[in-house]
Amino acid sequence: MTTLLAIDTSGDACSAALLSGERIEQVLETAPRRHGELILGMMQQVLENAGTRLDALDAIAFARGPGSFTGVRIAVAVAQGAAFGAGLPLVPVSTLAAIAQGAFRRSGERRLLVALDARMGEVYWGCFEIDERGLAVARCEERVCSPEAVKAPDGDGWCGVGPGWSVYGAELAARTRAVVNADAGEAICEARDLAVLGAAELAAGHGVPPELAAPVYLRDRVTRVG
Q1: For the whole model, what pTM was predicted?
Q2: Nearest to 98 by CA among 217, 204, 194
Q3: pLDDT value, residue 219
């Protein structure tokens, strides 16, 4: 039975969740610019509620980005500090994948086009399909680009989700012909969905030592490549 703590500080919301077998408990608060003061208390709360300790876990999962540069850095630093102290591996999980996982949990949609507002007229973009295990799997490379440059994978039945659809819905829909539900733009990254994906990544041998955990900004990477 996998026992894993997951944290997210990549957006306006801040959350921590503890997965123990098939049970998940989460604490979440929307509190922009307060992640640094809240996340440690949230981690302690879910551990205490479960009656366990950090050093009794199998791993810590964290939202590695994309998202707010400051928020993503907070998640990496907090996860590294906790993992070093408890002797645990870390599991980096895509913010976009977690949003897709959450959309599947709520709506059952299995083909998901995730967009986050990256500012400067751009979106963070990812395409995910839910596999036979009920897990979000990437079907395109995550990227940062203008809304006019996005592309959906082949096939029908794609559904738009994520805050980027609230800002650039018309442009994204014109490029992808995706179905967009009324609440699509309200979908956020949540630690409970990171935990589900993180447990699968850990089982696949994708945990990393704390010193190798790193944020993924996408914009910074694209700038270097381009």
Answers
A1: 0.95
A2: 194
A3: 80
